[in-house]
Each structure stands twice: as structure tokens, then as C-alpha cells.
Amino acid sequence: MSSNLGRIGFKKMVDKNSHKPSAQHLEWERLAAIDNKSGETKNLGRVTSENITLKPIYFSSDLENTKAQEAVPGKSPYTRGPRATMYLGKPWTIRQYAGFSTAEESNQFYKQALREGQKGLSVAFDLATHRGYDSDHSRVSGDVGKAGVAIDSVEDMKLLFADIPLDEVSVSMTMNGAVLPVLGAFLVAAEESGVSQDKVSGTIQNDILKEYMVRNTFIFPPEPSLRIVGDIIEYASQKLPKFNSISISGYHMQEAGADAALELAFTLADGLEYVKIALSKGLPIDSFAPRLSFFFGIGMNFFMEISKLRAARMLWAELMTEFNPKLPQSSMLRTHCQTSGYSLTEQEPINNVVRTTIEAMAAVLGGTQSLHTNALDEAVSLPTDEAARVARNTQLILQHETDITHVVDPLGGSYFIESLTQELVNKARETLKEVAQAGGMAKAILSGMPKRKIEESAARKQARIDSGEELIIGVNSFQQTETQKQTPVRDIDNTEVRRGQIEKLKKIKSERNEKAVQSSLAKLTEAAESGKGNLLSLTIDAMRLRASVGEATEALVKVYGRYLPNHQVVSSVYLGSYSNMERLDEVRNRVEKFLKKNGRRPRILVAKLGQDGHDRGARVIGSGLSDLGFDVDIGPLFQTPEEVAKQAIENDVHVIGISSQAAGHKTLVPELIDALKKLKSEDILVVVGGVIPPQDYAFLEKKGVVAIFGPGTPIPDAADMILNKLEG
Amino acid sequence: MTTNDIASLMDHTRLGDRRALAKVISVLENINTSAGDRDYIIDKLFAKDTNARFIGISGTPGVGKSTLIQAYGKFLVEKGRKVAVLAVDPSSPVGGGSILGDKTRMAEIAVHENVFVRPSPSMGFLGGLTAQTYLTQLLCAYAGYEHILVETVGVGQSEVEAAEIVDLFIVLCLPNSGDELQGIKKGILEIADIVAINKADGELLSAAERAKMELENAFQITRSMGVKEKDFITLSAAKNKGIDKLHETIESRYHARAGDLKSKRLNQKKAWFRKELESRLMKILRQKKSYQKFMQTPIADVSKTQTIQSFVDQYAKKLINSDS
User: Fold this and answer.
1) How far is CA B149 from CA A609, B15, B57, B266, in A?
2) Which of A207, A220, A266, A682 is deepest in the core (most CB within 10 A)?
3) What's the rounded Cα separation, in Å, for the pair A202 and A167?
4) Given pLDDT bands bounded at 50, 70 and 90, which one contains residue B311?
């Protein structure tokens, strides 16, 4: 970058600012120009992915555009923190998200964590449970016990929390799709362990709107799903005084590739929609608003993430004034945070400890109420005991060995942080306005606008990384030269877990009062049909009688049906942001040669198997490959191996690309290859990408997979590898 | 591919083998397929008349074409019928690639045993898209599919071509009134056999009924001008309403005018023939050295010529008459 450009950069900054540059600022410019004579100064006026232009330096004059001078922690709009004392009295809650295999195994893991200094629990359920299928359902053979714990009934829930005092330990549950039977089973399990509903504390995610944007673990169409959200908020406002009835989540948007401004705006817009639903049920604002909680992702953009949390609090307080709350807690944004899984790398996993530490610091300096820190091996699998311990210790070290907790909002007043906070607020306001014009978030989601914006942001990010514009150490720069040591991973014997679950289901079903169960389920169906009654209350009754998660879900599916999304995949965005044109042309020329020789473009079916709804990877890859000249078929979500084989054969693709993010690959991919063989189509190649531990590569290759793409494979490289295989 | 392979693939196709059918479609899509192979397939397809229904479904993007195909397809398979769906997705003019997402938009029927869904990219076919679609629908009929639903790209001249190769052309509209309808009326509405107003449920029910009336009235005015007979219906593809009515309307068309079908099929064949001829002529032309040379030379003196028309004419004659 030339010094000339630098100078222009400075000038622009000054011009853009409505204030006259201070004497300090002018002095700095003079000195900086001397420093920059040789032209080595980079990043002058860098533009972030949020499209915010960063100045090279901030001065006190920059505070004039902000409300920093009046801000007091514990006072609306809570920019500096929801509480006056913040971490002085009590630091944030260390809440590690975990769950795998059976309830018994997860229970052991939780108890160990609590002994080692963890304060709250956070349960990860397997995908079968998320999607409301019992473990014995034929569609979930590859999913049971894999990316979380398998829960089929109250009995499993009791095992999950055995010997854990539910009146003391707060429990957060990531559940959105099968939220009714899972929350129901939890409350019954607590009751039966002697803790009444008004004593349990914790959080249920219950944030269905974002599922339609990014995560896809919904069951029903949006409309009935929102009724369920409303019923839960209603029930909680009356019977669960210590329980957060919703955790409005931006985390998954960030993981799907949303920049900070989009995450911020869409999360708050979701929140507004939930407030409106609760109000429409006749609930007074102060009866439920204090129990709304938030959940943000924290990535590597340190200052941006700190500012995001501050901006979120400021905006939420502002948005809530519309509803005239009397209680200050009603407009106070309290949040959980999780460090970014997206930022973790498969290469040199030890580096992930460093990344997670930086992200954890950002969350804490932003003023989070609780935090999950990712384990170093989470780019490829569920954490081992060892990795989980390091992750937890990261937070303990921050709490006990640093002075971060000694001062309230230590970054308050920083010229840069305060300016960035304000910039983010301004950016988010624009998007919030757009959502309001679309008629609120529920309507906006149906139009596909938020999903499209997030995917465009994701494709741009991927292109910047693939073209080396954004550096990731050990992945696209400073790669390790000697061969990598394999990190041990936690492996789940999914067939064994499933067998055990099926046995337990049989046992419950044989011991319960069948007539009473069926009549409770019929009542649930009736309430879905009539629109009357509280679905959570009725589900609790059914679960108490030992209905299963699948049965309680099916009772509603009868009326609501199962929802399948059908959004368009964005195109040309990847291409537009990939700055290495030579590399692109190289691959495209190869594709053209392939076309000339074979008479058809390389055609690939990008598919998802099982209940894993994380489709960012699949969609970004699909979009990128089409930009490179491939014909790309996109398969529907939640497919069985046989269904994927049928589509691949009908479309006569050359290759199937399976994107796996939830550990089902060891069961489902071999089943797919068998299905292809059965249909005499073994000429269709199978490649796999996503979260695959290196330990599984040999297994998959033996089963017939021709190429495996780990996290961080640039799309042009993947295209090259596919063409290599196709050309033999 | 040797003719033997083609023969075997066609045999399997006729027996309803899904993989063989898919492979033959690819042979037709393949730009390197020999004229002999292509002719072999075409001869087989033309050898016998078929009773399959060729239904075109058109409408602007977002109007609900895929949703309607899913709803109607489901209706048909529940009656025990075999359904094929042919859809087209745009190829990128830049990279040439495409995103074929149709199965995600009709996921429910795409997995059904008696349903065959084949999305195709819009560019790169020998005889052009319409000729390709025509042959593919015959091929699906040859494989035993009884209802072939052809989803079109939804705009402009290609729709007129698409209408020429199907038995019935359904145009799907939204229950908007006023200007938007005017636009549709002038264009593809004229070529429609059935005009279906979608999203006729909930808040939009009365708007849909009103739109139907307006369209019917407009049609009465143009009727004397020789525009073809049309049926107007309202339905809701997403809510599964009015699908039975759509089916009735389609079937009554087939029953009432059974005699028409023969001439229709002949016209389809003629339309295809014209397209195929055009593309083969272009192929011959493209193979001429003089053509290749001409296309590579920059046309510097266009602006200097007196009339562009005569300039083009002059070159066209020169290229056609040259021997190599």
C-alpha cells in the first residue's frame, strides 16, 4: 500500500467526520505521515465485513457521536452492563455445553464438570431428539447419541440429572424443535426428584425463528411453531419464576457466516417478534420480559465482538421502550455467550486454545452473564475429557488469575470501543428497519430475506479466506511443515447407544398405563386442532404418564405436518469476493476441458444425510462450485441414504458430495454407498466434507469414499480434487 | 457410446429402469453424442404414440410453480399414477454452471417411488432447451410415466416455445389485480389453456376470486379475436386446495377433445422438428472454417456500412454458400 493512498485515507476520514479534527488529531496525522513515508503502513481505513470503515486511530472527539459520557452500568440503556457491580460480586457463570451418547454417560460427565468448578449445566441433545424422533425411528439410525445425548422419555431425563440438585444447579437446554416434550420431561424429572416447578432455574432455548434461517432443527411450519413459543412463555410466566423461557440466539447465525451487524440485528428482531407473540396472548410485558434471555456467538474480531454485546444491550433497551415496561429488568438484555466453533481449525488444534481464550476475553469484556468456551478438538468431534477440562480452565484462569473481574466495564470510555459500539448500533438499526418494513421477523423469514443475507455474508467470507485475503494461521498461512500429530477424539458407538435406547423404550411402553397415555396424546392433538389450551401444560401431563418424545411430537405432527424448507441457494457471491482470479480461471478452464471431453459439465449432488440441519457448508460449497462451472444439484434436508441415492441416479450426477457436521458420517455414508451399489450405480463417486475426525478417514476410504475435505478446504482445491477423481 | 449400449439403455428404459432413463436423458444432453445415437433414440421415441399427458406449468418466479407440482404430483401418485417432473434452472452466463434446487422445492414427492424428477440446466443443449425438453418428455412416457409435468423458466419467448410442445399449458398467477394482470394478459396468458390463480386461501381468498373474474372478463373481450379457449380456476398449492378441481379440468380437456390430441401431438412434433433443424443447421455452419474465421475476426467496419441490414445479409449469404 503506498503512502499516497495512506494520505488520501486520512483525508477522507477527516472529511467524513462532521467535527473539526482536534489539535491532537492533526498532530497525530503529521507524525503518522512522517512514519508512513516509506509506505509500509497497512490497513489505513480498513473496511470490516460489517461494512464499517475503521479509522486508523480514535480520539476523544470521536466520543461526541456516542452516548458514552452519560452511560452508567446498571442503568438504562445498559450499554456498560446490566448490573451496577457486574463481576465485582460474582463473576459470570461458567456454563459448558455438553452431552453425548446415553443419559448415564452424560450424567457422569456433568458431575465431573461440577466437581471441577463448573457452575451451571448446558445440555446438548442428539439430532433425533431435536427433530422429535424416538431413537427407534428408522430415519434416525445414524443420529442417535451422536452430537448430543439421546432422550426419549422422562426416564432418560431422570438418569441425565441423577444426583444433581436441580434446585441449586441451573440447567440450560438447547432445544427448539421438540421443545415441548423435552421441557415437559425435564420438569417432570425435577418434580419426581423432589424439586417443584417454581424452584427449578435455567433456560430453554425455545428460539424457533432462527432455526428457519440457519440451523434447521425445526419440526413444524413457522406458524404453529410460534404458537408453541407463545404457550411456553405463557406457562413459564405463570409457573416457572426462575426459568428463562427463551434464549434468543444469534450464535448460530454467526456460525452460519453472518457478520456481527447481521447477527445483532436479526437476533433483536427475533426478540421483538417473541415479545409481540407473548403480548398477543394477553400477557403483561413485565410478566415475561425479564425472563427473556439472549445468546451470542463470539468470534475472533475482538473489538467488534466486545462492541456487539454493548450495542445489543443499548438497542434492546431502546426497542423495549415501545412496550412501556415498568420493571427495569424488562428492558435489560442478559446474555449467554459461546466462543465460535467456526473459528476453530482442524489443523494444529492446540492453536484453538489460543483462539478460544481471546474470544472468551471478548465475551467477558463485553459483559456476558455466562459463557461456554469451546474445546480444542471441537472442530472435528465432541470434546474428550482432557480437552473439555482445558476449555473450562480457560475461564477459571480468566476469573481467578487475571484482574479482569476487578473493575466494572474496564473498556468503557475507550474512544474506539465506544465509537464501534455506536457504529454497530447504527448498522443494526438499518437492518431492523428493513425487517419492520417487511412486517416483522416472522414474515421476513418466510420471504427468505434474512437467510439470503446471511448466506451472502458467508459466501463472501469463505471467498476471502480461500483467496488468502483473510488469514487463518495453520490453515491458509504459516502451515505446519512436518506431519501433524493426531489428536485423540471422542468416538461414540452409535449402534450400541441406539440398541440400548430401543430397549428402554420397549420397557417404558410395557409398564405404562397405555389408555391414559393415548388419551393424553389425543388431548394434545385436539388442542393443536382447536388452537385452545396450553400445549406445554398438556405435554407435561402426557410426559408424566410416560409418553415418549416421539409420541408427543407425532400427536402434533398429525395436525401441523412436518416442515421442509425450500430456499434458493445464492450464486455469484463467492465468485465476486474471491480475489485470486488466476486461480479461478485455472479451475474454470479445467471444467471447460472436462465439458469438451465428456460432453457434460461435471455434475454434483450436494446432499445432507440424516437429521443434521447445519447446511451452511453444503450451501456455500454448492454456490462456489456452480460459480466454477459445475452443475450443482442441491438435495433436500433430512434425507435417508436411499433417498439421496435415488436423487443422484435420477439426476445422473458424476459425484455426490455429502456434507456432515454432526458425526453421522460413519453410519450414514457407508449406507449411501451400499444403496448406490444395490441400484447398480457404483459409478457415482462419493466425496465427504465437513466435521470429520482424521481418525475416520481410513474407515471412510475403505468403505469407498474417494475424497474427504476437512474444514477449511478452499473450494477451488475441492473442485480440483473432484476433477482429479472424475478424470481418474 | 456404442449403439449397442444405447440399445440396451433404451430397453431398460422401456422396462421402467430409473437409472437407464436418467442415463438416456444424459445422452441427449451430452454435446458429444453422435448423430447416430441421437437418431436411434429419436426413432424409438417416435415409433409409437403415447397416452401420457404432457402438461406445461408456467408463471413468474415466486408464483408457486414447484409447490403446485408437488401438490398435483402428490394427488396423482395417491391415485396410483406414475409422475415425471422436468424442471429447468438457469445456467450462469459467466461460469456456465448452475444450481439445480428443484428437488428441495418438491422434496415430498421427489422421494416417492413412482415419481421421477429431473432438473436440467438451461444452457448447452444441441437442439436448444425446448427441443431437449420435448425429447425428454417423450422419453419419460417411453419409460412408463403417465403424467409428465414440465416446469418452465417463466419468462418471455421461451414460454411460447414451451407451450408448443405440451398438450396443455397451465399459467399460474398470483391474486394481484390491476397493472400486474395487464402485463400477464398481453404475454403468456394468450397461450394458456388453463389459468390458475394460486394462493386462494386465507386473506387472499377473495382477492383470488376477484382476479379470476377480472381475467375471465378480459378473456371474453378478446375471445372473438381467435384466442384459444381457456379455463379459469383458483387454487392454493401450499394448502392443497383446488387440486382436485385442477385435475378435473385437465382430464375433461383430454376427454372432451380426444380428437384434438392427435393434431396437437403432430404439431408438437413439427415444432420440435423446426428447432432440431435450426440447431443442426447452426451446427453445420459452425463447423465451416469460414464461419469460425469470421466469428473470430473483429468486425471493425460495421459503423462504416451504409445499412447494417445489407451488411448482415451479405455475410449470411457468403457463409452459407462457402463450401468449407
Assistant:
1) 28, 21, 7, 19
2) A266
3) 10
4) confident
The model's pTM: 0.83
Q: What are phi and psi of A628, to 5 degrees?
A: -90, 0
Is A252 an annotated catalytic residue?
A: yes
- Whether the CB-CB separation of A584 and A628 falls below 8 Å is answered with yes
Question: Measured between alpha carbons, how far is A649 from A656 in angstroms, rounded to an integer?
Answer: 10
Question: Is the pLDDT reported for residue A242 higher than 70?
Answer: yes
| Cβ-based neighbours of A417, under 8 Å, separated by 6 or more | A303, A306, A307, A310, A411
B110:A636 CB<8 A: yes
- With the C-alpha atoms ordered A478, A482, A488, A490, is the resulting torsion angle positive or negative? positive
Q: Confirm if A160 and A107 have CB atoms less than 8 A apart.
A: yes
CB atoms A600 and B29 under 8 Å: yes
Model confidence at A248, in pLDDT bands (50, 70, 90)? very high
Name residue, grid cell 446490566: A82
Per-residue pLDDT tens over the stretch B250-285: 999 998 766 788 889 999 999 999 988 888 888 888
Distance CA B300, CA B298 (A): 6
Q: What is the ipTM of this complex?
A: 0.90
Residue A161 corresponds to which cell in the numbers above?
440429572
Q: What is the pLDDT of residues B56-96, one digit of tens each?
A: 999 887 788 999 999 999 999 999 999 999 998 888 887 88
Angle at CA B226, nearest 5°, toward B225 and B230?
Answer: 110
> Residue A37 pLDDT more than 80?
no
Q: Which of A566, A568, A625 sits opposite B97 (nearest CB)?
A: A625
What is the mean predicted confidence (pLDDT) over A555-574?
Answer: 82
All three cell numbers of A227, joined, read 404458537
Catalytic status, residue A156: no
CA distance A307 to A260: 9
pLDDT of residue A9: 41
Q: How far is CA B81 from CA A30, A193, B20, B85, B151, in A?
A: 81, 56, 20, 13, 19
- Single out the residue of A691, A682, A685, A674 nearest to residue A707, CA to CA: A685
Instruction: Give the minimum alpha-carbon distance from B187 to chain A in angstroms, rounded to a whole number.
Output: 26
* Residue A1 predicted with pLDDT over 60: no
Q: Which of A592, A597, A635 sits opposite B104 (nearest CB)?
A: A635
| Model confidence pLDDT, tens digit, residues A184-208 | 999 999 999 999 999 999 999 999 9
Give how far Cα A281 sits from Cα of A223, A233, B142, B292, Å: 15, 10, 57, 72
Q: H helices of A172-259, where?
A: 179-192, 209-210, 222-239, 251-255
pLDDT of residue B303: 58
DSSP category for residue A176: S
Give the neighbor-by-neighbor strand order of the sheet with A335-339: A243-244, A202-204, A171-173, A120-123, A93-98, A370-372, A335-339, A292-298, A246-249
| C-alpha grid cell, residue A589 | 478452464
| Record: contact A679-B19, CB cut-off 8 A | yes
Instruction: Give the SS3 label for residue A252.
Output: helix
DSSP string computed for A516-548: HHHHHHHHHHHHHHH--S-HHHHHHHHHHTT--
